[in-house]
């Protein structure tokens, strides 16, 4: 009887020890479990180039959990990949004059059953601010929505419209947040913010005499978080070719619009933007490009297709009248003819 009791107690002790051991192994620390899962996943998951997750850990940079780290030569590859996504987007051009802004975006062929109005590149951020995107539209929508919320918050707090520069810096800070965290990826889109500020030229450039009207401003916000102000800018596909054209002819067109009425200035800027777009896009009438203008009097106005066709026809006639050797001189001495159209609001 005594031997049986001793044997039973020994069996109970072994059972309790076995249970404690199994519980100890089942409830390992979180980092140990994560490391174990990563090692087991590395046997099956492969990264680009055929490297496993375990092998990628020795690459030192471009692994799964190191998006926000610099490479040895000072690059942030994820940001550069995002900029490459912008370069693959549709071409966008923005130019400004003295009283007017013009924005041109490339149109591409739609599917037969697709509704064209659902594909947008221009978004109203505030009553006096327009956002134009290039790159991944899904990413840009989130940026535009947050910019709209910030503009609304500014109006509620200060009872005034937000400056264009303020919204541009907010968008830049928003994009910068996605480049310093390992839990998110950079936005794959750039945003051009155009609008009018109530600041005077004297506050902006002290060497100039301040005019008695708000002046137009163009800001570019890219996925790296950088914000820059420009007189004319192009992003998207073949933007480097368009920028060369803008840099070459902007001063001559700025001279043309000097002391002109608003309608003439609007027309000259539109034809200038179309001429720049023709450098990289095979024009097929209004099916290939969308134009919008911004003025203090009319706000944001998207040109009708008939208006775009008239501008393209007039521009084509002017270019056909000259030889290739005279095109450069023609752009410098361009004499815009009067057009028989008037500003109309287009939905």
TrEMBL record:
One of its GO terms (biological process) is ubiquitin-dependent protein catabolic process. Gene3D superfamilies: Glutamine Phosphoribosylpyrophosphate, subunit 1, domain 1 (3.60.20.10). GO terms for cellular component: proteasome core complex, alpha-subunit complex. Keywords: Proteasome, Signal. Residues 61-85 form the Proteasome alpha-type subunits domain. Residues 1-23 form the signal peptide. It holds the Pfam family Proteasome_A_N. Belongs to the peptidase T1A family. This is Proteasome alpha-type subunits domain-containing protein.
